[in-house]
Known about the structure:
By secondary structure, the chain is of the alpha/beta class. It is built from 22 helices and 25 strands. Strands 1, 2, 3, 4, 5, 18, 23, 24 and 25 form a nine-stranded mixed sheet that branches. The chain has a six-stranded parallel sheet with strand order 9-10-11-12-13-17, sandwiched between helices. Strands 6-7-8 form a three-stranded parallel sheet.
Amino acid sequence: xxxxxxxxxxxxxxxxxxxxxxxxxxxxxxxxxxxxxxxxxxxxxxxxxxxxxxxxxxxxxxxxxxxxxxxxxxxxxxxxxxxxxxxxxxxxxxxxxxxxxxxxxxxxxxxxxxxxxxxxxxxxxxxxxxxxxxxxxxxxxxxxxxxxxxxxxxxxxxxxxxxxxxxxxxxxxxxxxxxxxxxxxxxxxxxxxxxxxxxxxxxxxxxxxxxxxxxxxxxxxxxxxxxxxxxxxxxxxxxxxxxxxxxxxxxxxxxxxxxxxxxxxxxxxxxxxxxxxxxxxxxxxxxxxxxxxxxxxxxxxxxxxxxxxxxxxxxxxxxxxxxxxxxxxxxxxxxxxxxxxxxxxxxxxxxxxxxxxxxxxxxxxxxxxxxxxxxxxxxxxxxxxxxxxxxxxxxxxxxxxxxxxxxxxxxxxxxxxxxxxxxxxxxxxxxxxxxxxxxxxxxxxxxxxxxxxxxxxxxxxxxxxxxxxxxxxxxxxxxxxxxxxxxxxxxxxxxxxxxxxxxxxxxxxxxxxxxxxxxxxxxxxxxxxxxxxxxxxxxxxxxxxxxxxxxxxxxxxxxxxxxxxxxxxxxxxxxx
Length: 576
């Protein structure tokens, strides 16, 4: 009888702590790492990792799989990029707690904020829960390709406690605050990992209604934090208001950290139009907070937070024009055929966009700053290659150029907008933010923005761009990069049984051919409930992914194994 279930032999082991690598083997039995080094004996399965990296499985602390986890077993695209644990419920949106008459409100919030079609959620969500603990119980029955951990979303909590008053964004009463505080503590005791909220004014329903969590007073945020304090556990995640000066927003974040005594993390971006270089002020604030003994971290994206546009995606230059809206429901081929009619083109180009949601109109207006992709991803484009620059060079108006460009590749042309983290046309601010000891690489948003953003490939990009391909003066050392993908995000949210390669810890691992690592251009697949569409982005070079000792992916192909489970806070610590 084999001594091990799996042995990974002869790889370059990066243990996730930032320590120098070593050549060796990893022996796995019963879902746990039991031996590291020179592992003697045989196994039911052996992976030859000679010349390859062996790393802990990646931990993604910023995802939105809250709905997808209830109707699907594979949490792609994240699981195709080495992620073995995903933390969801971020940005204050999710589906629990929720009374039956509030379901439509939460669905419309998720549709508008995270770009998940309403029909997909109506068809896919089983709603076999009401309270947050009941939601965790429902998730515990699921069998997945990766592990998931859940957080309590503020907007859902506010609607649950305040009903219609929450949607009208009325101030809470003392009783409301006490109820929210109690329910946060109850959710953490049941196994939730934290509470989340958003102050981002772009977070609206598709019709333009603001999320209930917006403009909540500091007293309300502190009531949520007090629930964490009552439970003596959990983390607080927040999106600051990007249009507000950092000098205004950071004191609010700090006050929540001071009152709760719990770890706080927040979205940290180089945002166009933000007064001053707000990200620098946030970094300075993090430095001072650390000196004062506060646990605060900025969540940083490793590349531009980019949006995609196209006829087969959620938005494009003409998606709010009345003539286009009239054909938007048709299959792509039929839309393309209609748009090639000169009479239709003339009618549409004479129109102006119309929408009740100012955010939608604002996003559509940014199409002028997009870049057309061919067959290779380009996340660092040159400004003279923008769509508006190409239009000017061709002697055409933006509308005329965009119309023909969108019809390229039979309507499948893809346009990329580096919306944040690229304000000066370089990634220098990103590198500075990533280099801070008070930040963590995050914000991949897996499970959200199905037709607008495809950032779940962050881990692959991070290793490719900042480790393998970076210039010497900007390169991140490989051991540090692996720690940034594994032990550090795990520690941020309190996952103590994973993120490192050591005997006794959970056997979540990746085998990676760093030289072969390559991202592909996202593709559109109609594989959601009710025939909904989403972007997928594949990667080459990830040789194998292991979850709880079972190989889940080989060279990007799912093996059929579904060892992933819900992780409840507290279980991980006990297991470790």
